[in-house]
Amino acid sequence: MNYVQGRNLFKEFTEMRESLIYQYKKGDLTKREYIHESHNMLMHLDASPFKNVDSFEKAVFNYHYYNTMAKYMGMKAADLRKKQKHPDMYNQIIKRKDHYYHQKDIMSWKAVNIINFDRVEAYYIKVISSFLKNDLFEIIFKDYPSVVFHSRSKWLKEKLEEESLFENKIKHSIIETYVNERY
User: Which of 24, 71, 106, 183 has minimal Cβ neighbours within 10 Å of its Cβ?
Assistant: First the structure.
């Protein structure tokens, strides 16, 4: 990402992302379209993750960057798998997807640390998918109600448990419709 004097990346990103969320909630975008448009937004912003993550905002931005890239790679891999062509390319894309998900989980932990573990909750969420059942969990930040993270990471769950932030219960997700929509 090129630095541009006077540019407020957080503001641009937040406004564009909120617009996409609004369009999704209104039904103008499917989940697949939302992910595709989120990827396009990152490309339009010429965005890349921050190297020095020293604020909650940077951790959140990086989380969304990596999450979007992982989901986009997952869609590309699924499309390739359906065509049953290019197994090497499929494997490369899966590796990139997994890398992005791992980086996303690192950013989740970084965000929790930056706010000093204060007013953070994590718990399993109720899902339709049997693949994600008792696996996918949500992290919420009570002082930042619009920030909701999700993960399946074992190491991240263990870290949250060590800090007494993980409640071993199944709850409804704050964004249940989105979480349960297939793409």
Answer: 183
